[in-house]
Structure formats: structure tokens, C-alpha cells
Amino acid sequence: MLWSCDDAQEYPVSKASLEVDSVVLEQQNDFSEYWYAGKAEVCSYELKQSRYGELHDGDAVLIFVTEPFSLSKQVKLDYPDRAGDDKVSVMKLNYVKKFNTGIYDYSTMTSLFTPVDLQTYPYTLKSTTTSQEWCGHTFTQFNLDKNNYRFQQFSYFEAEGDETKKVDAAIFEEELMTRIRLNNGELAEGEVDLLPATVHARFSHQDIRPTKARISKQSSENKTIYTIEYFHQNRTFTIEVQSDFPYKILAWSEDNGDGLVTTAKLKKDLHVPYWSKHDKADEGLRAVLELVK
Description:
Elements: H1 22-35, E1 40-51, E2 54-70, E3 87-101, E4 104-115, E5 126-133, E6 136-145, E7 148-154, E8 163-168, E9 171-172, H2 175-182, E10 190-195, H3 198-204, E11 211-219, E12 223-230, E13 236-242, E14 249-255, E15 261-272, H4 284-288
Parallel strand pairs: 9-10
Antiparallel strand pairs: 1-2, 1-15, 2-3, 3-4, 4-5, 5-6, 6-7, 7-8, 10-11, 11-12, 12-13, 13-14, 14-15
């Protein structure tokens, strides 16, 4: 059962300070001008993906955009002006990877919908992940239901099969990227409950559940590096972030303890309404992003 707009009132609301200094006000103005300009940020990355004991060349793309979202249906609103209290602004992240392993190719995509107002809505509302390769494909979806996620999984692997269950609500590993964008490039240091990356869980055929991790950071003049170390998994995840607005993701890496490290490094970025760039005349933008056809 989907939860209603009234259920949203059960989320804890943090009391914000009534005093807003000039720095905070400037940050708010920068955020609105960039993220509510009717454009998305599209970033391409040079990918080195660990799979089958080797590193494989590929491309990754991160697409960040704000959207009006339905609290009750947990989908993008077609008519946000009619939605009333059911409307919430979210930061959507589409996280795409494409790479080849020998003769056949892989394509994965994770979509996250994280509320811009994390004080009122402290959890991502929805996450979906698909993985396609020549053996078959899998689909995983999390829908927030108060303090749990309703988890659904469909897979061609017999051991995974089709599954529905509840998972305790926690922060998604991929969500750390949306939180960085929403929180002026910052992540809180210390221990945290995380849901490990869904693509990693699918590749390793692991169950997805909250697990303890520690977040630490190193800062320099131009960037901040966040390191996420899992306590009960041989896994480390790092994110390099631009030190000033709009706090772009410069690179990331995944060390799964297999002796190989997946890496992604920023190539190019665009700030465009990509959904309207669908004609043959727009194909040149892929060359700008240095994406393989």
C-alpha cells in the first residue's frame, strides 16, 4: 500500500534558525539560479570498471536535475500545479554506466529521488536500478514507506528470482552524491548506516540491507575527497567533489577488495535541458561530452 500525504507529517521536522546570514542567503540564491533554471547538469566520466577479475574501459554519466515529485504515487508529477500538498521538490540523479566485457556489453542505471528539503523529508523517496547484459537483466526498486523501504527485485538468476520484502530505511550509497549537491558540498563525518550500492550488490549477488560505515574527508584548495569505509564489508567508496559551487562530482572510486579498483574521472559537463535535445541535430552534444556512440 502506498502511503498518503497525511503520512508525510510523521517525518521528524528539524527547527531551522530564524536568522539567515549573508553567506547562507548567497548559497540559497546560487542553488535556486542553478537548479531551478529549467536545465539539468550532465557530466560524462572516463570509466574503468572492475568485472571478472579485469578492468574494462567504459563511460559513466551522472545526470542531476530537480523535479516536482508526488509523495503519494512516488513518480514525477505531470501536473505539479494541481498536486497541492502532494508535491515535493526532489533532486533526481540518473547514474549510468556502460562498458564491455569481452564480446558482450553491460549497461546499468540507478535513479534516485532525494527531497531537496531533507529537514522535512530525511530519506530518499525512491530508488530504482536496472542492469542489462547479454545473459539477461535485473530490476530493483525501493519505495519509502514511513521508516522502511518496500523492496522489489526481479532477476533472471534463480537464487535471486522475484522478491518483495521490507528493508529498514537508511541512506543509499549513491545518495551521498545527491546529498553533497544539496548540502553545499558537505557530508557529515562519522559513522552512518548505509545501503550499499545496488549495482555492486547485483554484481556480487549480495542481499541489500543497512550496514555500518564511516565517512571521513580530506580537503584541499580545489576539492574535497570523501572516503566511505564499510565495517562489515571489504569495500571502500571515495568521492572527489569540487570545492566551490555547484560542487560537481569530479571523480569516484570503488574498492571491493578484489585487487582491482573501479574508477571514474570527469571528462566534460553540460548544463542543458537534455530532454529537449533528442533530434539528429543534437547528436553533436554527445561529441562534446566525449561519449562513445
